[in-house]
Amino acid sequence: MLRKLLGGPRPDLVLNIAEGQGCSRSREARVPGVLEMLGIPYTGSDPLALAVTLDKDCAKRLVREAGVATPDWVLVEEGDLDAVRGALARFNWPLIVKPAYEGSSKGIRSASLVHDQRALEQAVASLADAYRQPILVEEFIDGDELTVGVVGNRPARVLGVMRIVPTRPGPFIYGLEVKRDWRRLVRYECPARLSAADTAAVERAALAAWRALGCRDVARIDFRLKQGTAYFLEANPLPGLSPESGDLVLMAGQLGMTHRELISKILEAAMERQAVEGGCRL
């Protein structure tokens, strides 16, 4: 890509969907960083926001500092649970175990929900070995799984709130296994059937998280809702935009928006932002 940009014509605008390669927590920031160095405008968040959101521990710290609830968590370095044993003793079971620097539910499966110390140790050891990165352990919030689409800038607006409803009983994890078989294992509900008060609380939390993380143009932000409190899970400023899948695309479809219209909204947000920023095209 870099050779083509240096030796050929420069695009007027890049629709950025590049997630990078490897397991670095800054991999999603690489393409926007190159584009900024070359003075090429692009859609979506800047390198800092992309790096911050991919690092789940960092994102949760910033969002909590902004006053948004998030499940209690610890970061396990090099699989060393002994180093965080004191903090874990204050947590309520069950717990969720996930890689700290992954998106798209990578590493999150049914075995990620653990109910005792032995299962926790096995899950942490397995993920640490597979992903070679810190592991996030957080309290499981037994509530509605929600995702919020946000688009625009000055101001950003909530596109919609979607509820992911499991089709089977029992504790629900919206992990990789479910996403690969979503037509059978879940149904999507947008607008989410929530009370007006709960909807407002989730939308406020999403916009607060968006501001705290420095998102631009588009993002999808995930929550668990329990007893009127929206608990931030993570933010995805590079949401999947495949015409046939991806939560943001499914949300837009349920709201009566075509895939073309969704992409147009993202492009319009980026172009309006650059027009306002004037001399600094990025």
Secondary structure elements and pairings:
Elements: H1 2-7, H2 30-38, H3 47-54, H4 56-65, E1 73-76, H5 85-88, E2 95-99, E3 113-114, H6 117-131, E4 135-139, E5 144-152, E6 156-166, H7 176-180, H8 182-185, E7 186-189, H9 196-213, E8 217-226, E9 229-236, H10 247-254, H11 259-277
Antiparallel strand pairs: 1-4, 2-3, 2-4, 5-6, 5-8, 6-7, 8-9
Helix pairs in contact: 4-9
Give a verbal description of the structure.
38% of the residues lie in helices and 21% in strands. Strand 8 and strand 9 form a beta hairpin. The protein contains eleven helices and nine strands. With 282 residues, the chain is α+β, with helices and mostly antiparallel strands. The strands form two sheets. Strands 7-6-5-8-9 form a five-stranded antiparallel beta sheet. Strands 1-4-2-3 form a four-stranded antiparallel beta sheet, with helices on one face.
